[in-house]
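in:
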Protein backbone atom coordinates (compact mmCIF):
# COMPACT_ATOMS: atom_id res chain seq x y z
CA UNK A 1 0.00 0.00 0.00
CA UNK A 2 1.29 3.41 -0.80
CA UNK A 3 2.83 5.43 1.98
CA UNK A 4 0.35 8.15 1.04
CA UNK A 5 -2.68 8.04 3.30
CA UNK A 6 -5.75 6.82 1.38
CA UNK A 7 -8.02 7.99 4.23
CA UNK A 8 -8.43 11.42 5.77
CA UNK A 9 -8.42 11.86 9.53
CA UNK A 10 -12.18 12.34 9.43
CA UNK A 11 -12.67 9.14 7.47
CA UNK A 12 -10.50 7.19 9.90
CA UNK A 13 -12.61 8.50 12.79
CA UNK A 14 -15.85 7.49 11.02
CA UNK A 15 -14.52 3.99 10.35
CA UNK A 16 -13.35 3.51 13.94
CA UNK A 17 -16.59 4.80 15.41
CA UNK A 18 -18.78 2.68 13.14
CA UNK A 19 -16.66 -0.45 13.68
CA UNK A 20 -16.80 0.03 17.45
CA UNK A 21 -20.59 -0.14 17.24
CA UNK A 22 -20.30 -3.61 15.66
CA UNK A 23 -17.55 -5.00 17.87
CA UNK A 24 -19.86 -6.69 20.36
CA UNK A 25 -21.05 -9.41 17.97
CA UNK A 26 -18.74 -9.84 14.98
CA UNK A 27 -20.04 -13.28 13.98
CA UNK A 28 -23.64 -12.04 13.83
CA UNK A 29 -22.56 -9.15 11.63
CA UNK A 30 -20.42 -11.47 9.53
CA UNK A 31 -23.47 -13.67 8.98
CA UNK A 32 -25.29 -10.65 7.57
CA UNK A 33 -22.34 -10.01 5.23
CA UNK A 34 -22.10 -13.60 3.98
CA UNK A 35 -25.87 -14.06 3.69
CA UNK A 36 -25.88 -11.04 1.41
CA UNK A 37 -22.85 -12.34 -0.48
CA UNK A 38 -24.59 -15.64 -1.26
CA UNK A 39 -27.78 -13.75 -2.22
CA UNK A 40 -25.81 -11.63 -4.69
CA UNK A 41 -23.66 -14.47 -6.06
CA UNK A 42 -24.84 -18.02 -5.25
CA UNK A 43 -22.05 -19.38 -7.46
CA UNK A 44 -19.59 -18.57 -4.66
CA UNK A 45 -21.08 -21.28 -2.41
CA UNK A 46 -19.04 -24.16 -3.92
CA UNK A 47 -15.82 -22.35 -2.96
CA UNK A 48 -16.60 -23.07 0.67
CA UNK A 49 -15.86 -26.73 1.32
CA UNK A 50 -14.66 -28.30 4.53
CA UNK A 51 -13.43 -31.90 4.75
CA UNK A 52 -14.44 -32.32 1.09
CA UNK A 53 -18.06 -31.59 2.01
CA UNK A 54 -20.06 -29.54 -0.47
CA UNK A 55 -22.87 -27.49 1.06
CA UNK A 56 -26.32 -27.99 -0.45
CA UNK A 57 -27.52 -24.49 0.42
CA UNK A 58 -26.25 -21.18 1.74
CA UNK A 59 -28.16 -21.84 4.97
CA UNK A 60 -26.29 -25.10 5.51
CA UNK A 61 -22.99 -23.33 4.89
CA UNK A 62 -23.84 -20.38 7.14
CA UNK A 63 -24.60 -22.70 10.06
CA UNK A 64 -21.53 -24.94 9.72
CA UNK A 65 -19.00 -24.53 12.57
CA UNK A 66 -16.12 -24.42 10.05
CA UNK A 67 -17.78 -21.61 8.14
CA UNK A 68 -18.45 -19.69 11.36
CA UNK A 69 -14.68 -19.92 11.95
CA UNK A 70 -14.17 -18.43 8.48
CA UNK A 71 -16.51 -15.58 9.38
CA UNK A 72 -14.50 -14.94 12.56
CA UNK A 73 -11.32 -14.77 10.49
CA UNK A 74 -12.86 -12.35 7.98
CA UNK A 75 -14.04 -10.11 10.78
CA UNK A 76 -10.56 -10.24 12.34
CA UNK A 77 -9.03 -9.09 9.04
CA UNK A 78 -11.45 -6.16 8.97
CA UNK A 79 -10.59 -5.45 12.60
CA UNK A 80 -6.87 -5.48 11.77
CA UNK A 81 -7.43 -2.99 8.96
CA UNK A 82 -9.42 -0.74 11.29
CA UNK A 83 -6.72 -1.04 13.95
CA UNK A 84 -4.01 -0.01 11.47
CA UNK A 85 -5.74 2.85 9.66
CA UNK A 86 -2.76 5.15 10.19
CA UNK A 87 -0.36 2.58 8.78
CA UNK A 88 -2.16 0.22 6.42
CA UNK A 89 1.13 -0.55 4.70
CA UNK A 90 2.14 -2.71 7.68
CA UNK A 91 -0.56 -5.17 6.54
CA UNK A 92 0.67 -5.27 2.94
CA UNK A 93 2.51 -8.61 3.09
CA UNK A 94 -0.25 -10.27 5.13
CA UNK A 95 -2.96 -9.11 2.69
CA UNK A 96 -0.90 -10.11 -0.34
CA UNK A 97 -0.55 -13.63 1.11
CA UNK A 98 -4.26 -13.67 1.90
CA UNK A 99 -4.87 -12.87 -1.77
CA UNK A 100 -2.69 -15.82 -2.80
CA UNK A 101 -4.67 -18.12 -0.50
CA UNK A 102 -7.95 -16.94 -1.96
CA UNK A 103 -6.70 -17.48 -5.50
CA UNK A 104 -5.50 -20.98 -4.57
CA UNK A 105 -9.03 -22.01 -3.55
CA UNK A 106 -10.57 -20.63 -6.74
CA UNK A 107 -11.72 -17.15 -5.76
CA UNK A 108 -11.74 -14.74 -8.70
CA UNK A 109 -10.53 -11.17 -8.24
CA UNK A 110 -13.88 -9.99 -9.61
CA UNK A 111 -15.67 -11.54 -6.62
CA UNK A 112 -14.17 -8.92 -4.33
CA UNK A 113 -16.51 -6.28 -5.73
CA UNK A 114 -19.44 -8.44 -4.59
CA UNK A 115 -17.79 -8.88 -1.20
CA UNK A 116 -17.43 -5.09 -1.02
CA UNK A 117 -21.13 -4.64 -1.80
CA UNK A 118 -21.92 -7.19 0.91
CA UNK A 119 -19.69 -5.40 3.42
CA UNK A 120 -21.45 -2.09 2.76
CA UNK A 121 -24.83 -3.83 2.99
CA UNK A 122 -23.89 -5.32 6.38
CA UNK A 123 -22.69 -1.93 7.64
CA UNK A 124 -25.90 -0.27 6.47
CA UNK A 125 -28.16 -2.92 8.03
CA UNK A 126 -26.25 -3.08 11.31
CA UNK A 127 -25.57 0.65 11.76
CA UNK A 128 -28.96 1.90 10.64
CA UNK A 129 -29.18 5.70 10.60
CA UNK A 130 -25.50 5.97 11.58
CA UNK A 131 -24.57 4.66 8.12
CA UNK A 132 -24.26 8.03 6.43
CA UNK A 133 -22.96 8.71 2.91
CA UNK A 134 -19.67 9.82 4.54
CA UNK A 135 -19.38 6.51 6.43
CA UNK A 136 -20.10 4.62 3.19
CA UNK A 137 -17.39 6.56 1.36
CA UNK A 138 -14.85 6.00 4.15
CA UNK A 139 -15.47 2.24 4.22
CA UNK A 140 -15.40 2.04 0.43
CA UNK A 141 -12.00 3.73 0.43
CA UNK A 142 -10.65 1.39 3.11
CA UNK A 143 -12.01 -1.69 1.34
CA UNK A 144 -10.46 -0.57 -1.95
CA UNK A 145 -7.06 -0.28 -0.26
CA UNK A 146 -7.39 -3.75 1.27
CA UNK A 147 -8.44 -5.32 -2.04
CA UNK A 148 -5.61 -3.56 -3.87
CA UNK A 149 -3.14 -5.24 -1.51
CA UNK A 150 -4.85 -8.63 -1.82
CA UNK A 151 -4.81 -8.37 -5.64
CA UNK A 152 -1.04 -8.28 -5.49
CA UNK A 153 -1.26 -11.89 -4.35
CA UNK A 154 -2.73 -12.78 -7.73
CA UNK A 155 -0.21 -10.67 -9.60
CA UNK A 156 2.76 -12.23 -7.79
CA UNK A 157 1.94 -15.83 -8.59
CA UNK A 158 3.88 -17.45 -11.43
CA UNK A 159 1.83 -18.64 -14.40
CA UNK A 160 0.43 -22.11 -13.92
CA UNK A 161 0.29 -21.96 -10.12
Amino acid sequence: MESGMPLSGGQRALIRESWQRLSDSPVQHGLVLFTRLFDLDPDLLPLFQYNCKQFASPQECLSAPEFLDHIRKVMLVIDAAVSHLENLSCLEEYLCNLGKKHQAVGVKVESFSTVGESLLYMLEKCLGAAFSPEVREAWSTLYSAVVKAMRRGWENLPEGD
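note: Helices lie at 9-22, 26-40, 58-63, 65-83, 92-104, 111-127, 133-155.
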